[in-house]
Amino acid sequence: MKHAILSLAVLMAALFFPCPARARGEAKPNIIVILVDDMGFADLGCYGSEIPTPNLDALAKNGVRFRQFYNTGRCCPTRAALLTGLYSHQAGVGHMTDDKGLPGYSGRLNDQCVTMAEVLKPAGYFTAMTGKWHVGQNLGVVPWERGFERSLNAAAGGFYQPGDEKAKLFLNGQANPVLPMNWYSTDLWTQYGIKFVDDARAAKKPFFLYLAHNAPHFPLQAPAEDIAKFRGKYKAGWDRLREERLARQKQLGLANNDWTLSPRPDAIKAWESLTETEKDRFDHMMATYAACVWHMDKAIGTLVSALKERGELDNTLILFMSDNGGNAEGGPNGTTKGEPTQPDSNWFSGQSWAWLQNTPFREYKHYTHEGGISTPLIAHWPKGIPASRNGAWESQPGHLVDIMATVVDVGGASYPSGKIKPKEGVSLRPAFAGKPLARTQPLFWEHEGNRAVREGRWKLVAKENQPWELYDIETDRSELKNLATKDSAKVATLAAKWDTWAARANVLPLGGWRGKKAPEDKASTKTRFTLKAGDHLDKADAPAIANRAFKITVSFDTKKATDGVLIAQGGASQGYALLLEDGKLVFAFRTKMGLARVATMEPTTGAHVAVVHVDAKGKLSLQLDGKLVGEAAGNGPMSIIPVDGLDVGTDAGGKVLTYKKTETFDGTITSVVIELEKK
Description:
globular; 11-stranded mixed beta sheet; 6-stranded antiparallel beta sheet; alpha+beta; 679 residues
């Protein structure tokens, strides 16, 4: 399904100027965006870790690393911001994938955003993704309807092997595809990523690949031989290993000499206070985590080798990052249930090791202090990054919202205007060459009431329901010296900017992630609607069809039209459309449980009366001129009033379907009557 209207300018550019770089005799660069899951700031060798990551280290050595790159502190919001170039609340995913009844917390990508795939595809790119989606598949938002021509994905993560109940995969939209036996997800995503690269090469197009690993997210699972590589190495303990990581960060040039370690939280025990049995258990836990990271790096090496073999590496921009900081879920003792080589095990590395993973920072996933939102960013592109920058550190702050702007810039694409929200970030391409970014606005965060704003060297940050803290990040990256009482004017200035951003970016009301309903969320009480061609109703005025039976009667004449929408209500998550498709009358009904369709067998021409009936359980029937032409059991009733409004003669908001030729009906619509049964 196409969920957003690309501007006329974008479409015209795609038609008449599909590959401007190629017109000059230059090949457009390929683009690969790699996102890993729950990996801390300090977990790569090239960011100070003792975990060997030679393949990512090699990309860093021949590319640029960012000292200050930020995610949102949580998986779903990060994916929303990365894919769309908007702050996560603007895209509808301010929390997780549950619909909380508020625009910023709808739990799925909304219809006011576009994905990188939807922007790059009109620019001539072959678009593909593998891995963890987690931006609303449970609510009907799927990669194959958001611009990706190829996809092997899971709705969410939390697994590594077949046999796990969460390991339900979709290949190009097909559930339960035939896959290699005994797969390990890290390798599977890579294997299919390479296959999709070959599909792009066969199509003679540059490719965009979004590779979303679920490693090293819990439940931590890895092959036995991988875990064995690291057993015993973590008996040095988190206190000592944290000191060693910071020392390496300084040697690498990542950390300034004045960087200091945040103190050990009270909940985490001193390593030397543990018994030998406890130390062995914790060693096994972190060895399993390290194995997940090591295997992920190995898979990236496989991908890089495949690009080299195909002659594609030099002109491929690779961007690597993590979706949040190390994860303290599982508490200071972590969780070790079952054997971590098996799909039914449940291992969390927990707070004590997350403290190491986020060296030298405070806090973890969920929070907007540096430990929660800081990620490595590696950019590798031999043809696009000057050789003089190989191995360089970039100190300018960046954010996930910048990735969309970067791929638009690098890919020669056009970002749409109109109903799509303007992108929030700036292109990072100048920073690749050591030049200033064009940023004019601060960077912002909110998650679960934890909030922050970064402007220049200053960062204002707070936990939920706690007062603002102020830090000079240039001299105090570990956020140990709170300057809020010394500079109340700076606090007030930055807090006012955060308030303004929160109001415009669908962040408010604070606490909306808990499911508070917006007081302005009104619904029509009418049970009969008489409409005509060109009519539009906003959500508040449209039929309140949630959990309700209704009937639609449309009188129309096709004239010469063979395609187009007669009436549509809703869009990306839930909605319906009555349309012509290749001359056949079709009724499509989309709920959070999926899409159901009924259609005529033969093309429909001339003047007709169509009647659609949806009963209270979501069963569908379609009549044409008094004759029943189709029925379907459906996927249950509409659970909410669709966010998008209603249109007659087109589908002007979010799209209920990906329309083959056009969404606009060029015939005549004489009348439309919608009748709702009383509750």
